[in-house]
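User:
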Amino acid sequence: MVHYKTYLQGLLAFRRPLDDQMLLCHLPDEFGGWRPKAISPLIVADMKDLTLAPKLVSDAIYLKRDLESLLGTLYVLEGSTLGARILYRRANELGLDGTHGARHLHEQAASDGFVRFLQILDAAPDVDMNKVIGASDLAFQWAETAFKDNVNE
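Assistant: Predicted structure:
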């Protein structure tokens, strides 16, 4: 359970700044009515279930608002739903589920947001895929830093 708690701390440090910025971000018309799902409130609820206080983290993550940056970052955020399906099963083995301790994983595992996002990505007009890949790499770096900063603290 210690590792799961560390995971929650790192994930919140990564997702909260991005979720907050996405909520304030005007998404391009190409996105239609689709919006990414903010999971940081669910992570906080999971932490409360496990009597784990969220740590205060600086918002060192800054999301650029150009189309390529949004697509690259969202590729990482929405792509995490695939891994959430595996992690949710493992959380179940710890006695956690969609109503206690693993709400965020349950929400992500049940989501079809990645499929819809890939449709948006495929239909995006004239995007520089090198910039999209660069933004994805940056999002992975943010995640790595958030997790490293929350190990053994």
